[in-house]
Amino acid sequence: MKQLNDLVAGFWQDYAALVLLAGGLLGVVLLISFAIWARRSQKPLRPIALAFSMNLALLLNAEGMWVIAIDQLKLPKIFAVLVFAVFEICFLTATSLAAEQYRRTSTYAPDGTVVTPGHPGPMLWIAALIAGLSGVIVASNAVTFTEKLLRLAVPCMIFLMWWAALTAAGQRVRRGRFAYSPRRLAERWGWLIPDDDPDLVRMAADRQVRRMVVNYHRVSAGRFPKPWWRNRLLKDARTAGEPVVDEVIEQLARIQRVMDLLVPGAVRIAVPVRTPAPAETPAAAVLAGLTTPADPERSLADGGASTSAATVPSAPLTASIAGPASPSASPSSPAASVPASPSGQAVQFVEPVQFVQPAAAVADPEVASGAAEPVTVGSGTADAAGPAGANEPVAVNGRSGANGAPAPAVPGRATVVERTIAAGGGVLPIPAQRGVTRDGAAGPAPVPSLPAAAPAGPASAAPVSAAPVSAAPVSAASPVSPAATVSAAAPVPAVVPAPAATPAWAATPTGARPAVSIAGSPWWRLAVDRLSKMVAEEITADDLPEMNYMRRTELARKLAPRVQELGEGVVRTFINEYISELDGEHVESAYPWRDFLPSPALAPVDSDAWHKALLDLRTALEEELGDGTPLDPEELADLLAPSAPRLDEATIRRFIGDYVLALSGMSAPGSAQPWAELLPRPQSVRPASDEDLLEMHGAELFEHLRSTGRLSRYKVQAVTGIKSRVQADRIKSIIEERAAETATA
Q: Could you give the dihedral angle defined by the CA atoms of residues 560, 562, 565 and 568, in that order, rounded to the nearest 10 degrees?
């Protein structure tokens, strides 16, 4: 090996200049060839140049790792060759995987340009971590401060160049983001305007909605200082857009509905309800064809075109009203006048949730025929009305009489529909079939069909006395109101037959979900009762050892389709608690089904469960008798029966009786029972004397003293089992004296 080194050194001294010249010429030739190849192939040189510069920088970093491996770690050179470039190899692997992930997640156009940029994935951060760690490790071995900066800058520069070149077309935003990034904090504090990031815009809108809802509740509750919270709410209201306002009103209404469900008797606050403009409501669309002539006589002279009879079906004409409404609201109740706010939005109270028993459908031929016939409202109904109907005022839109004066309202009884009408919503509900009133009584009968209208002739309008909402009287001398006249050209919905009667348990309104899904409701308990009977058919006491997790899951999936209203999760919970109770394990259930769980099954005699129950009973008995207070066996049996639920009462009483007799030193009849090994050893009432203890344990104590040369009180207590320290000291003194006498003799 030495001769080879000498030959290489001699060759280098003689031909060093020639070798350098040949190497330079070869490099120039390769560079020219590479340039010609790149020009002909039309391939960009930027990736190749970037890879070349990255490898040169990695060589500089690898040289620092070589110095650490040789000088600091004192590794053999053969081993150092294998491990000095471990960081560089890992860095190149991580960057290649990240680039592959970016290209795989990117979407390209046919010409090769990036349409939707991808994301490098977690390998991006791994490559950054490797570059940072290698730079710190290499810089820690540097001598000067300049070299430390150089060693730290090289890996960081390599990583930043690679990342910038890879994501030159952009980078897709990941779903997971930092909740408190510098950009988010700057936007939250008002230092940044989110004009190009939809995520920041959405976050600002959500925060403004949440702030307006909270400040509204603070203002409504009179929170101190009230002017401060009102000004905060006004500040947000000035800059809030229409979507933000709609979201705030919806959240306030939803909060009130949830509070009505959870705390029915809580203090209610005024919840704003956005009332749409009359031109936007369905009722306004129905009334769009109405005309209000300036001269009634002229309109009648034209043939009554503006007051022609309109056919209105007796089925309910439903008008959608923004905001929550009670299902039992009666349109026939008097309207409560609520002044509209200056902004055009009526401030209304959300109706509380009421549980009303649904009325059964009545199959009455006369009612059915009356519901199918249309109600004719017009100027020609006066001939068929009779003289009695001319003197009766008819209410329209909460107004009675010919002058349209507001009808008297009952305090606190106005519904959402009535308050919306009074606020200017322009809603005209005309329900005609029987329903349920606010107080739970059946509503009025459907409107009977009126006779056909006469061709012409001024007369008083016919009264509609039995309908929840009746038409106003129309005469030739009075102008026709748009709210009381329906044009003949207006679209009239077809008569829909009454739906089939639904059972009471499914039709009871409960708010957000069916009544059968509310834990503790009567219908929910009926479903749990059916489930308990099905589980009792599937599980017996003999099946308890086999009811593992797989069997329980299989049984839950089998029974869940039979009680779909409960759900598979509730079924699985019930099965687990059913098995635990049947096995004697008391569980604290979160559902009110304690009365559907079974009693603990009695364990067969001499079985594993039976012996386990006996051990639990003996443990409870030892804890009860630990204070030394004697108790009657009958009282102990009554007291400790819950500790062994799978044992029958007779077995518990016999075991406790035998245990107490064994403690007192008497011969127990249970010695022939299977629990004989669980009974305690007899304990004498009179403590053993020193002579008895020396006779039994003296030899052992003397041998211990002779072998070790010392005898402690704790050793005496451990061997003899006595607890008295005075008696242990006496026995120790006796043993030491006898040992001394034996030694002197």
A: 0
